[in-house]
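Researcher: Quick one. two chains, 226 residues in total.
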Amino acid sequence: QVTLRESGPALVKPTQTLTLTCDISGFSINSNAMCVNWIRQPPGKALEWLAVIDWDNNIYYTTSLRTRLTISKDTSKNRVVLVMTDMGPDDTATYYCARLVSSRNYFDYWGQGAPVTVSS
Amino acid sequence: DIQMTQSPASLSASVGDRVTITCQASQDIDKYLNWYQQKPGKAPNVLIYDASNLETGVPSRFSGGGDGTHFTFTISSLRPEDSATYYCQQYDKIPYSFGQGTRLEI
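Model:
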């Protein structure tokens, strides 16, 4: 059974750095064709894709946030980590991790989401 | 980056109605488009992949079509549980991108 679970702080202050963890079970992040993505959704707004790391450690970011994002994986714990620097109020959102299998190219499993509020 | 424009932003319909949502890509994306359903407080769920393929377990009243830059998503006979927000998403080029969503009220 595939599950993804996000964890991280629910509240961060402006200018702080956010670190989110996606713990994965049911598949290995090093298995061929496995890609783990981060996607966020501000309250009442649309989904926004942020970043992906694949089985071969290829990494891609959304253009507008490229300078603030770092995605990495810890293969010993089968988890993916997203770091976002210089948080501001517009970064208030629910942050999801989601799996994409490169042979199918859609997000087939999602975590439950981690709500993050940026406020002083 | 590829922009996805979805319409309408919201619509209200009745049980048994047929509804269609459109999604326009800012450049040719072939058939590299997926459709998701999202209910309040939940993560999205894929319904259609590769523009027109029904994901396993998804009812056949859902369908998708189109290619290139213009795509459609149709629910043939609405049921109360179809009340949700629907998103298109392109995967032709990274960065992946979603439409703005269509909120469907039954």
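The two ends of chain B are 34 Å apart (CA to CA).
Researcher: Thanks, that's what I needed.
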